[in-house]
Task: structure prediction
Amino acid sequence: MSAREKLNDDLILGKHTYRSINDKVNNVVLNQNSHSIPWAVCFAVGFMLLQLMGLAILWLLYRGIGIWGVNNPVMWGWDIINFVWWIGIGHAGTLISAILLLLKQSWRNSINRFAEAMTLFAVSCAGLFPLLHTGRPYLAYWMFPYPNILAMTPNFRSPLLWDVFAISTYATVSAVFWFLGLIPDLASLRDRSKNPIFRFLFGMLAMGWRGAASHWQRYESAYIMLAGLSTPLVLSVHSIVSFDFAVSNLPGWHVTLFPPYFVAGAVYAGFAMVLTLAIPVRAWYNMKDFITMRHIDWMAKVMLATGLIVFYGYLCEAFFSWYSGNIYERSMLYYRAFGPYALAYWMLILCNGVIPQFLWFPKIRTNLVALFIICQFVSLGMWLERFVIISVSLHRDFLPSSWGFYTPTIWDVAMFLGTIGQFTFLMFGFLRVLPMINNFEMKELLYRMTGRGHHHGHNAAHHAEPALAGHTAADGEEH
Amino acid sequence: MSQPIYAIVAEFEDPDDLLEAAERVYAEGYRKVEAYSPFPVHGLAEAIGCDDSKVRWTCFLAGVTGAVVGMGMEVFCLAIDYPLNIGGRPLISWPQFIPVAYELTILCASFGAALGMLGFNGLPRPHHPIFNAKNFERASQDRFFIGVEAVDPKFDLEATDAFLRSLGAAEVSVVEE
Result:
């Protein structure tokens, strides 16, 4: 097992030409009959849960956030947990689209489009929670510095305000990056479509893209710049989210380890969600040629690696609590493991510490059912991690007289299920109206596997048929 | 011909053939040349003498603007417009101003890159004479085109046509404005 794996034909299976890749990707959108019953079921369930969210928000706006379980001393409950959980899930999309692009990892090409869509939709779910948590979302613009007769300026020294800027920048840049990647594919749909309404809509969105070489050159430089900007952005976003906790003085929150460990946890949860979506979708839409077992295997490996970092974080947290010698730190650790919420802590260790170890076995990494189940444990584990950090740290602080116990209400649950519905609804809507796989990058990948680029710099002993991904094991091409 | 001519376009089935054709067209002395492909072909823009760093510079300058405006805004808000003593910290406690300035840097630089790309490419532009080329709808699917524009000083209807045919193109056609 070498550290640098070879770029070979495992990234695209079967005999594919530019034409066949193009048709395969575009037909999902152009042939509206290609959507099966599982699509309809997921879309309908998502839509129903979305209605539940509408109800939960209406009731919340009418009654106020008292309908949630949050109260003194646990002021941050499911709402903030869900916020951090969703934002973390979004991070895998940016990792795949930006960081893997900078690292020239060709295996990102077939998964980046829907991973980026996942980022956008996850961020849209995340953004709802702090907005509603303010209690008066219609005054949210107060968080931005604008000239006003109240003579108010936001406090730029507060991590909560950093959060406002980090999340809104993240959402905007992710949307720009996603749209930029879509332009050539929209042009392809425009030229392929027979339906005049589709032609018009895709034509408007493609903005007259004509694939000129000089345009591609500027396009690629803009794309690589955006990737270079998104990489520090994604690291900064979850670091800033972790500052919400780390900058405070509360035991269990005041941990210098938080920024890197939050980022690793985000990638870990995000890859679990990418796999959760990719495993069924590739089967339903018969995309097994493009999202191959190699992709699945590598995503599972990334999950294992980041999972180990997260688990190392738990060990460090426990060690430093003990090593600090501080009575409050030590009792926080004790109550986490043996307090009223001990079950959540040990479930967390099980989900994030023990179960991912199965991913060491190649047989499990390529067993789709097992992998899908592990991904669900990872998602649950990452949710529990935020519960343990946020709510469990709050329920017993410095003064025993102010201790309390936190339980969520049905409205917390309704809101959470509602965002799952929103995410599912948007994700399956996206599969229907936009190409789920990056069409032009897949064609470019085929070119690099078979065309002139393939023969650069090494002995062209294996001469593949042009435009045919045969069974030629290419030498390790890392462009 | 009732319409003025925009270009002569040659169509290829393989990106490597297009790359070779582009190199030969440029070597022949044509300068108003544009190649069209469904995906970026490395070396193609360079082969027709096109290397543009304007997008990179736009991105950089937009990023610098974001940093300066972001930091300036924070200093103005908290130290000049409404000086606010929070926890006895200095009014310009710049390390705490970095996260917001940093996010604004990234935001502006991203807009610089994306809008710079669209702006310098002259997009959005829904109509363009090249779309009149025969079979051009496949330029976004699986075919590769190179066009010598009529404004090129070396352009000659017959000679250019014959030259493009000699490159082994699958199809050569005249495109009207």
